[in-house]
Task: inverse folding
């Protein structure tokens, strides 16, 4: 999903929607437009989760290096955008008339409404919306979902048989993050880079009216209860095939974090060097920020424990014990929730 130019060029802008990958990509694109990388350590302020408007205002008021803009990002702004009528007049003032030499990006992790009385239906955000400074990341319509899947398959050098993209879109809906991970899982399961209708049927199954990919979606959002629920339903539905498919999803993500750690030890710092080290295509480089946050949160010891849990789960599955006791995969699920939950 490509962010529109009106959003990217806006010094004060807003992202909302329930697609985490889309949010990360939009943040990265907006930062690239407004933040001088040479001065990033001195110009950028990322506000903490749950902060209030005075903290945002104070961040904007801090001086930046000569010739550079003060760039402020609020990555968890949902609490600031709950009630339009409760916006303080001072806040409305600086949102309507941006401070010279400042840039502000507000990020809501859920979709916002433009209905009367809702935040996007009230000034100044209603004006932002009309001006194209508000970018929603989330559901694609059926045609756009099929095109997205086909594009993702080309990136991974997969060949989709006729009807596969349409069938996958019908099963999963239009969330770009879910669709992207679905293609990645199909790549793991495919032989020779070809995805047939038969493979699609074998690698997807019911998970509370969703698909196998609901499990990875849940732990990547830190939704422990939902992750455990989808794990249980998956194993009940397909006790032999589901564990291997789920573990394949987890292993892929953990391996990328391990590769990032190795790349850092080798002194690689730029996105152009790190992306291939993690096995990412240039168009997937926006995922680097997420993997970096996970690695910073885990640290070497935590990552070592996570790798051990993956190995234990793999041993249990191949030993045929998981269908009787899913303990190792359950422990892995809990650890994944902790590691990815605050992305």
Result:
């Amino acid at each position: 999903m490509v962010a529109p130019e009106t959003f990217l060029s806006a010094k004060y802008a807003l992202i909302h929607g329930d697609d985490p990958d889309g949010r990360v990509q939009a943040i990265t694109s907006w930062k690239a437009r407004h933040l001088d990388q040479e001065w990033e350590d001195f110009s950028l302020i990322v506000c903490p989760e749950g902060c209030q408007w005075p903290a945002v205002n104070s961040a904007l008021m801090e001086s930046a290096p000569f010739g550079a803009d003060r760039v402020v990002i609020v990555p968890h702004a949902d609490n600031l955008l709950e009630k339009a009528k409760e916006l303080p007049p001072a806040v409305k003032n600086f949102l309507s008339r941006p401070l010279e030499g400042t840039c502000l990006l507000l990020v809501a992790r859920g979709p916002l409404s433009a209905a009367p009385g809702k935040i996007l239906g009230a000034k100044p955000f209603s004006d932002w919306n009309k001006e194209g400074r508000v970018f929603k990341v989330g559901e694609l319509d059926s045609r756009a979902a099929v095109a997205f899947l086909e594009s993702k398959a080309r990136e991974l050098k997969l060949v989709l048989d006729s009807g596969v993209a349409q069938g996958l879109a019908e099963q999963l809906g239009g969330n770009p993050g879910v669709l992207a991970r679905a293609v990645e899982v199909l790549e793991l399961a495919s032989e020779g880079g070809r995805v047939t209708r038969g493979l699609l049927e074998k690698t997807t199954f019911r998970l509370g009216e969703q698909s196998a990919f609901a499990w990875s979606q849940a732990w990547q959002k830190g939704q422990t209860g939902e992750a455990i629920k989808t794990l249980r339903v998956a194993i009940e539905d397909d006790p032999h095939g589901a564990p291997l498919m789920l573990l394949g999803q987890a292993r892929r993500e953990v391996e990328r974090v391990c590769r990032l750690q190795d790349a850092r030890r080798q002194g690689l710092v730029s996105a152009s060097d790190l992306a291939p080290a993690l096995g990412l295509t240039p168009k997937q480089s926006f995922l680097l920020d997420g993997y970096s946050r996970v690695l910073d949160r885990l640290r070497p010891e935590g990552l070592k424990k996570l790798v051990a849990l993956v190995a234990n789960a793999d041993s249990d599955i191949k030993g045929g014990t998981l269908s009787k006791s899913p303990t190792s995969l359950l422990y892995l699920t809990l650890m994944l929730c902790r590691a990815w939950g605050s992305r």
Summary: The CA atoms of residues 53 and 91 lie 7 Å apart. Residues 205-211 have pLDDT under 50 and may be disordered. The chain has 16 helices and seven strands. The radius of gyration is 21 Å.
